Structures are given as structure tokens and as C-alpha cells.
Amino acid sequence: MKNKSLISITDFSKKEYLEILDLAEEFEKQPVQNIANGKVVATLFFEPSTRTRLSFESAANRMGAKVIGFSDASSSSTSKGESLVDTIKTVSCYADIIVMRHPLEGAARLASEVASVPIINAGDGANQHPTQCMLDLYSIRKTQNTLDNLNIALVGDLKYGRTVHSLVEAMCNFNTVFHLISPESLKLPSSVKMRINEKKLKYYQYREIQDAIDKVDILYMTRVQRERFLDIQDYEKVKNTYILDYSMLAKTKPQMKILHPLPRVNEINTNVDNTPQAYYFQQAQNGVYVRQALIAAILALK
Amino acid sequence: MSKKELVVSAIKNGTVIDHIPADKLFQIVRALDLKDCSNQILMGNNLTSRKLGIKGIIKCQDKFFEKEEINKIALITSYVTLITIRNYDVVKKIKIEIPDAIEGMVKCYNPNCITNHETVLQKFKVIDKKDIKLQCLYCQKITKIETLTFL
At what angle do helices A130-144 and A14-29 cross, to 10 degrees? Predict the structure, then answer.
């Protein structure tokens, strides 16, 4: 993985991402490790983000690396009309690794072609968000003690949700049974279902959470993202379709966990937060360990 | 008209694009920018064809198409036969094929794709040759024949 960019979850082999998960486990046991002294991590956020940017910066800081960058394109030369290619070539001179988020799809792939240092894609429009996928895998493995033969329900916006697409793609390597719960207009795209079919795995589609909740090991909730809709009326129609409530959790499997990439709006009632099934805040915490592992592996610090 | 008379006259040197489905002829003319070509061009459409029923044909004097131009034709229709003529003789006849990859000639249909905002060579993998589906190597979105625009 040394010096390798991470743009899409498919850039790493199954063996490679399992190695990252093992390394993340080490960081969870001992988060503060001064192995990146003298290294500079650039975080270029052309689109705002709280969790992803702060968890990358936290990860870098805990390893002793220095962080440079911006959290908003308006505070970079992009606002003066500089091209992405020029920004990336310039920042390549200042940093050992670049973490970037961009509103346009394919931006991270383009950056990786022109950068002289590795790029980690922290989200490019509705396309890919591979580090979210890695922390999802980590959270699934940690709560279920395995990634193999699980029943996973994905709920909400399965059409535009990039985390859902990456997670399905990754979990196709582990004999997963998928339970897909969405409104008709936000069903999983056929290109992603094709991946499930290629691996000869099973998937079931539902309209209601209750139809699947008692069968699954993981309930992966997603937010219906307003910014992905071209027509605001289409968004209004579906935004409150799924709201997970405490009362729906009575008969779940004992080890079932609820995941959510966050931020949530109202798809999980706050009365769920203190149940044994709620795992989304620990999931966010796992993001730091996974990102430490990624930076360490790519910079060959471990 | 005698049997041997050609509806579209012969050229001495150049290329003949034959067996064009009649509804694709003008698409090919546009894609190859033939309106701006100063060479002698002879064209016919809705001609009788044993293979297609009716067909179109384009003959370009002193023009030999580049790979990129041939790929453009292939994306519009792969039925076409490309014939190279030298001194009135057929020296080469090829059935054109859709390539596995396309570079720098098609626009990604996704308005949010980085390639529509930065100066960058557009690159696609051809994932379906029958129904023409091109997957953008940047945004991963699939441009189909209905949404295909040449640069």
C-alpha cells in the first residue's frame, strides 16, 4: 500500500483492506503513537465536512504529523479561479499526503493522476467515499466479530447514497445477504445490484423497516441527502419516509447493531441513542483509528 | 441506368464509408465534421442495399481517416464497411469495430463530472458494445448512446 492513492474502495484488494482493519485495531488499543513526526498531511476540503475532516486531522495529530489545508474552497485559490490540477500540483510540493473532498465526481481520481504524493479521497460528489466504507467494515467486524455470512439491511437513500454503494461493493466479498429498504424512487441502482448478482449473493427488497429488522445483524441507516436532489419537491416527498424509533427494536437479534454514517437529521429518533443496538457514535470514533491506519500504511510508517 | 453504373461515382484515391444505415448517415457527417472538410465528398442516402434494404454511402477523395475518427463512426454504428481506394482499386476493406476504451472524443454526460469542469482528457471504458455503454474513468457514471455527445 506504500504510496498508493485510495480513490475508490476497489483500489485496494480484500487482503489490503483487511490489513488496514488489523492495523486500525492496533491504533484503537494505543491511539497515541508518535510515528509520523516530521510528516505533513494536507486536508483540502473544497466542500464542507465536520466529521471526515476532523477525524482525519485528529488521526494525523495523534501520530505526531502536522496538518495544513483548508476547510472551505472560498478560503483557497480556487475562489480566484485556480484549476484543481494546479492546486493539487502545488500542494504536492508542501505535503507528504493529501486528503481531499470535492463536490465534483471524479475529482480525486484526476488529482491522483497529477499529484506527486498519494491522495486519499474523502468524498467526491455522489461518487465515492472509501474511508467511510473502511470504517463501516471496521465497525461491522468489531460488533459481529466477523465480516462473513452476515445479514445486512441498508435503509433510506440507496440510489444516491455513496456510502451504501461502496459498502455493498465491499461486503460482496464476504457472502453477505443484503436487505434493501427504500422508497420506490430511491432503490439501489442496477449497476450496484449487478455486483451482488456477479457474486451470486442474495438480496431482498422491502418498503418497510419492520419487514426486515428482526432478521438482520446490521441495520445501516442513511440520511436522504437534500444536496443530491435536483428537484426539491422530489426530496420533500421522500425525506421522512423512514424514522427508526425505540419501539421498533423489541425483537431484534441480540447482537444487532445500528450504524449510520452521520450526520443524521431525523431518521433515527434520539430515543434510540441509549439502546444497546445504537452504535453510530462509536462508529464515528472508529473512523479515527481507521484513518490513522490508512495514513500509516500509505506513508509506510508501520 | 445500366446495371454497372454507380449511383455515387467512384473516387481515385481516398476512403469509402459503405453500408451506413440510412438513419445514421447525417450523424456520421456531423461526427466527422465533414461540413468543414475541403476535400471532394460524394454522398448518397436511401440507396438500395441487398444487406440493409436501404443504405447510405460516403466517398471522401484523398482522405484517410484517423483511428479516432473511425472510433467515432463505430460508436454511431458498427455495421459500416470502411474501404480504402488507391488509383480506383480497393486496397483494403475493413469491418469497423468498437474499441475497448475511448479517449478524448466523447463528453461525459454527467454534469457533475470533473471532466466537464477542468481541462482534462476524457477517458471511458466500453462496458457494453452492443447497446453502447461507456463508463467514465473519473466519475464512474455510464454514458449511453442516447446521452452521447462528441467533443
Answer: 70
Looking at the structure, do residues A178 and A139 belong to the same domain, yes or no? Answer: yes
Query: What pLDDT does residue A50 have?
Result: 85
Q: How far apart are CA B7 and CA B9, in angstroms?
A: 6
Q: What is the CATH number of the domain that holds A191?
A: 3.40.50.1370
In a domain, B138, yes or no: yes
Interface test with chain B among A127, A193, A228, A230, by most B beta carbons within 10 Å: A127
Total domain count, chain B: 2
How many angstroms separate the CA atoms of A236 and A232, rounded? 6
Q: Do B112 and A102 touch (CB under 8 A)?
A: no
Angle separating helix axes A280-298 and A130-144, nearest 10 degrees: 120
Count the domains in chain A: 2
A103-113 pLDDT per residue, tens: 999 999 999 99
> What spatial distance separates the first Cα and last Cα of chain B, rounded to whole Å?
42
Asked if A66 and A162 sit in the same domain, the reply is no
| % of residues, chain A, pLDDT over 70 | 100
Q: Where are the beta strands (DSSP E) in chain A?
A: 40-45, 66-70, 97-102, 119-124, 151-155, 177-181, 203-206, 218-221, 257-259
Q: Are both A114 and A145 inside the same structural domain?
A: no
Give the ipTM of the model, two decimals please. Answer: 0.86
Average pLDDT, chain A: 94
Which of A110, A124, A191 is facing B118, going by the closest CB pair?
Answer: A110
Give CA separation, B126 vs A178, B102, B122, B135, in Å: 29, 7, 13, 6
Return the residue in B107, B113, B114 with the most chain A beta carbons within 10 A, the one to mutate for interface testing. Answer: B114
Looking up residue B82, the CATH number of its domain turns out to be 3.30.70.140
Q: What gap in Å lies between CA A23 and CA A199, rounded to an integer?
A: 28
CA distance A181 to A207: 5
Q: Please report, for residues B18, B29, B120, B131, the alpha-carbon distance to residue B23 in angstroms, rounded to integers and kept in the order given.
A: 13, 12, 32, 17
Residue A31, pLDDT score: 95
Buried/exposed code over B33-46 (b: 16+ C-beta within 10 A; e: otherwise): ebeeeeeebbbbbe
Q: Mean pLDDT over residues A242-252, rounded? A: 95
The answer to whether residues A162 and A121 belong to one domain is no
